[in-house]
Design brief:
Layout (H helix, E strand, L loop, with lengths): L2 E8 L24 E4 L7 E3 L5 H6 L6 E11 L7 E8 L2 E4 L7 E4 L2 H4 L14 E5 L13 E6 L12 E11 L11 E11 L1
Parallel strand pairs: 1-3
Antiparallel strand pairs: 1-11, 2-4, 4-10, 5-9, 5-11, 6-7, 8-10
Length: 198
């Protein structure tokens, strides 16, 4: 099973529910073996968002996902027939509001805030974020540290057909965690991803 990094380019208010001195490791044991492409890129895909104006962010509701852009996932080459296949997303760093409540919201932390040299002298925003959503633009929850999106896998007669493609979509867009005036600057956030099965 392959684990890769997606860089969401262009784009902690509240603390995490986990201790700062804790390392979490994620894995999965399976009898499946499929391949995955994100935006048709086999390694380290990058998603470039169109710039958003500070006015658009100011006029939006807290947590609203603005200018959502599709991220296309293709799963193929399965050697056995799972009932469902999907993508598992694990953010490298989150900003969380309302942790532990039904209204918890999860935003991808701007990597450039803690790594300003990567911005190469450009200004960096620290209060506008990127937020992930499913195909209907419903924000993903990372309450358990990861989020999973699944699609049904076709069930051909006989053995698995490695030529079958399963496609699914998730979205990334701008968002804000509070009502403070948005700061201008670059945003870059990262998530790791892997195939997951049901």
């Amino acid at each position: 099973m392959k684990k890769t990094l997606i860089t969401l380019a262009l784009l902690t208010v509240a603390g995490s529910a986990y201790s700062a001195n804790q390392i979490r490791f994620f894995g999965e044991v399976t009898d499946q073996s499929c391949s995955i492409l994100v935006n048709d890129n086999p390694t380290n895909p990058a998603v470039l968002l169109d710039p958003i104006t500070a006015e658009a962010v100011s006029n939006a509701n807290v947590g609203e996902i603005l200018m959502p852009q599709d991220v296309n996932v293709r799963i193929f080459g399965c050697t056995t027939k799972p009932s469902q296949v999907g993508i598992r997303l694990v953010p490298n760093s989150l900003v969380t509001t309302g942790a532990g409540t039904a209204n918890a919201a999860y935003f991808l932390k701007n990597y450039l805030v803690d790594n300003p040299t990567a911005a190469q002298g450009n200004p960096v925003t620290d209060n506008v974020y990127l937020r992930l959503a499913d195909a209907t633009n419903t924000a993903l929850s990372f309450a358990n540290g990861d989020a999973r999106l699944y699609a049904l896998y076709p069930q051909p007669a006989g053995a698995a057909d490695p030529n079958i493609n399963v496609e699914l979509v998730f979205k990334v867009g701008y968002s804000k965690a509070d009502t403070s005036a948005p700061k201008l600057g670059l945003i870059q956030s990262n998530v790791q991803y892997a195939i997951t099965y049901k």
